[in-house]
């Protein structure tokens, strides 16, 4: 079977919260005297997006110290290296982390320390996308963006928004001002839409939030004019096929629209979302899709190139990864 670890690529849709190791969470619990939510073999059990997000609140609530965050960041970069990722944009959503609500700069500094130490040790560079939650208020969203604008931390590359659109309803208008201010502060903008919302969520992400990248976006397939818009404007989708099947967006990989979107000219990349919690890897995601859709090595190269173009890596690093990708042989 093709080794997709050696494929030069970026990961552009992945959450810190989705990359915990069970041992670390259990150690956090032992240190703080917190009872486990379930036995070790069911610690990461969830059935849909709602129960998944509730689980994230519990998992993140076990992280109390700066060192615990730095170790998590370090292990994240090490995990990326193991999958052959050359650059990653990672999402972190402060609302999931109760012990850090009142110290978001401290949280960013702690993650930054772990990513910096990992890069020193030869692991890939990581950009941080700080995320709003769909169920937050407009005021809280603006407060976060103002904080990010004030601290201007070099690790922070983008404003993100994630969470459950089915629970929140239509929230594009609510977050438009926060995203406008993020753009004015020079932040990139990546938006979860078209996973727990339909195509209307994707359209709002473009028109109201000024997204330069969309996380998931796959339900755009339900509106042909929107598919054309994504293709014409070259707005990239950070697609996570394994996650979409695991969390019930599609019943099987064969029924997933990634190949139809690709054929319609939409820039799509393959990503993992929450790989540790969903028990997958990026190389396994490429392999499963190649197998299901019969992709050849040129199609795989194109998808990996899209991941690099869509990333927030600096131009020199992008050029280096793309040069290595050009000489990659399956
Ligand atoms: N946070 C972590 N994973 C997520 C997903 N798949 N959708 C929305 N928010 C998330
Ligand atoms: Zn996601």
Automatic annotation (TrEMBL):
Q: Which residues form the Adenosine deaminase domain?
A: 8-325
Highest taxon of source: Bacteria
Gene Ontology biological-process entries: purine ribonucleoside monophosphate biosynthetic process
Q: What is its EC number?
A: 3.5.4.4
Which InterPro entries is this protein grouped with? A/AMP_deam_AS (IPR006650), A_deaminase_dom (IPR001365), Ado/ade_deaminase (IPR006330), Metal_Hydrolase (IPR032466)
Provide the top EC class: hydrolase
Keywords attached to this entry: Hydrolase, Metal-binding, Zinc
Names of the cofactor(s):
Zn(2+)
The molecular function GO annotations come to: deaminase activity; hydrolase activity, acting on carbon-nitrogen (but not peptide) bonds, in cyclic amidines; metal ion binding
| Metal-binding listed as a keyword | yes
User: Signal peptide span per the entry?
Assistant: none
An example Pfam family from this entry, by short name, is A_deaminase
Would the keyword Phosphoprotein be found if you checked this record's keyword annotation?
A: no
Membership in a protein family: Belongs to the metallo-dependent hydrolases superfamily. Adenosine and AMP deaminases family.
> What is this protein identified as?
Adenosine deaminase
Native source species: Mesorhizobium tamadayense
What gene, per UniProt, encodes this protein?
add
